[in-house]
Amino acid sequence: MRVSANQSQTNMLKPQVNHLYRHQSPTPPILTRWKKNFIAGDVGVDGGRSLSSFVSLNTLAFPTKHRRRCGSFLSQRNTRNSVGHIKADAGESNTASSVIKTISLRAVITVQLTVGGVLSNLSFTRAFDDIGDLLGKSLLLELVSADADPKTGLQKATIQDYAHRTGQKADDLTYLAEFEVPEDFGSIGAILIENEHHKEMFVESIVLEGLPIGPVSVSCNSWVHSKFDNPIKRVFFLDKVSCLPSQTPSGLKQLREQELAILRGDGVADKPREKNDRIYDYDVYNDLGDPDKDPELARPVLGTKEYPYPRRCKTGRPRTKSDPLSESRSSDVYVPRDESFSEVKNMTFSFKTVYSVLHAVIPSIETTMIDKDLGFPYFTAIESLFNEGVNLPPLDNKGFLGNVLPRLLKAMEDAQNNILLFETPAMIERDKFGWLRDEEFCRQTIAGLNPLSISCVTEWPLKSKLNPEVYGPPESAITEEIIMREIRGFCSLKEAIESKKLFIMDYHDIFLPYVNKVRDQKKFRTTLYGSRTLMFLMPSGTLRPLAIELVRPPGNGKPQWKRVFTPCWDATGAWLWKLAKVHALVHDSGYHQLVSHWLRTHCCTEPYIIATNCQLSKMHPIHNLLHPHFRYTMEINGLAREALINSGGIIESCFSPGKYSIELSSIAYGQQWRFDHEALPADLIARGMAVEDPDSPHGLKLSIEDYPYANDGLVLWDIIKDWVTNYVNHYYPEDNNNKKLVESDSELQAWWTEIRTVGHADKKDEPWWPILKTPKDLIGILTTIIWVASGHHAAVNFGQYDFAGYIPNRATIARVKMPCEDPTDDEWETFKRRPEDELLSAFPSQIQASQVMAVLDVLSNHSPDEEYIGETMEGAFEANPKIKAAYEMFSGRLKELEGIIDGRNADESRKNRNGVGVVPYNLLKPYSEPGVTSMGVPNSISI
Known about the structure:
Keywords: Dioxygenase, Fatty acid biosynthesis, Fatty acid metabolism, Iron, Lipid biosynthesis, Lipid metabolism, Metal-binding, Oxidoreductase, Oxylipin biosynthesis. The chain is built from 31 helices and 22 strands.
């Protein structure tokens, strides 16, 4: 099927004149690279409204050149093979002195040096590629007119030339192609590239020089496959050719449609995807298990009625032998080629660092530590991870690892081993005993790693919604009497609820159905409870813990067990309270990683990316708006499926739910996730953390005035929304002539429909999906998507090491139950004799702690070339003066946010972000230096 589709496009991309040119030219020309698309002005297209238009060659005062029979090699070639076939008008060639008005254009192409492509290693094909470069046959460029032939209505013949290599600067190669463009060619709308090398090339940009208006750019940033792997040429639209489908220039309509067909994989056989494929398609999560390796590694398919889930990118790998529903695994997970990291990031980008930790450092830790269940014997043993480190055996490719993991790996003097030496997290650096304090325990629910779970209590008594016949009595053991013992003197329970002073972290119903399953796991020491943590808002604006409830459902011949723990003034109660906090934090840690982080950002964003590439042309302004917020997400998600969330991966090995971890995130998706609540204001309102108030900043009145995540997040949300509003209103103006531009945009409507019905197919019938009819609807949808990919992800990702790098502050697993849960006499006496041992036994083992810390370190890291929000203008934005101005305003306001956050952190009245030993809240500061800084908001989910 694919052959037919490819042949169709090949015929379109290679008009007869160019086909003859390629095979009859006596001397092959040269290769080029382009940088940004070429477009300008404001002109109506196909009767549409005035919009960014194209620089038309026949409306500018170009120099007139007469045909010559002699001249430079390049001029002869271009005149004979390009201009000679494309005359201004048939009537102009009637006289012997026929003159064709032309303009001389140069295309300067920037190609990145790559590990697997140009100038890679010495090989058989490399020799041919080098000869091709010397002969000037490297990249074949073709200029595509935006105007169709007025006589035939078909695409005009292209003007082409080979580009030759002209130099190298740092990690970039430059190539040059030269063209003689006839005056009647019309506006240049796109450039086609055919890679004559045997290896793919990463083309950064193309710059067209020689136009009266100055250089015009085309932003590529794309892998261009070898023609020997795929005969279809790559098309790159000029940056300024940003337009709605109905406004597409006549000469580009077919290209626009066919490029989308390629990205959708229309007509392509259902087979394993290859590395250089660019196909975006959907599949369920059926590749996390590995039943062929071990039946214990089988996992259910996520993306079904029982286990609803967002869709992932289809890889086409064959099914496993032991389970026809599961996809077989491989060490190389397919993602569409342009979703892969460019090779310039090879030594510095965090993806490679994560890969190295997962595939080299983690296995070395497992080799070093023979006893996988060995815990920490003393608290000083935990601290030794920062002072002495973990000895590792010699590592393969040690030099490479030393370059990508400088924070973690310290070479010993004898150079026989490496030491895995961890940096001291900022929180412990400031206050070594902060993790023990109740006020810090509460502060982190609004200014820590997971500020998205706390909610306001609106109903009393607390009651489970689970089936009581299965899970026992639904009433919480936290009674009014218990609460009043803690808040007497401040207000009554009723007053606390009415005045929004009572808050909860409720993991009861989401975890309780998994408690017995988790405890029954073989070869994995862990435990779990359903839990509720209740807090009270003090007059100082800080939270005070009131009670923690831990619940075990009936099962294994035992009745329901539940108990409430409170801050106590006796030794036994105080130690039980400390242990209850450990369990509550483990639950929060698991929910953070599985739901707040993985599910709500990484996982739910992937369908947006697939739909954007399948349904929105690269000419579409909304594609251009979203593209920087999608960079590298699919590749990091592929790595996660390979080694983080897979069966037996880091998440299953080091978090309390174990093998049920990702399954549990599916339950959370089915019960809790809804797109309209992913918007920050809606999320705060849904959790009772805010109410609408037009007289308050951002239109919201917060239940906790000093709520750092919400305070900073709402400023960032408004900045993003204002930028999106200016952008959308430019392309979809609401006036009498354009009342239904959004509703009539075929690509946009197909995009939103696909997100709802395919990407999130298990939620397609939910009534809460926003409609998409007006610019206002579109602004809300786009702002939500961009917020999730930038601000939301930054808030839950880049503080991981500083908050969870010290295991006691935020353990990922509780390995033993509470000592008061059905203890034997000996167990209770042991606890009374040495309660510290019980606490240490609850923490992760040494190997689990080391693995988690290594992964969190690299996940919290900013690469030296991180792409921060509002920092670098996209070529498509820069090409449009109004959009450029709006972006500069957007960028300026983000810089102002830096100062706002600094001022808030310096304000001593804001006790949730300022105080003795308190870590300032910087997670939503837009910019950061490289490394682990607990600040910086990248454009996209790239780590």
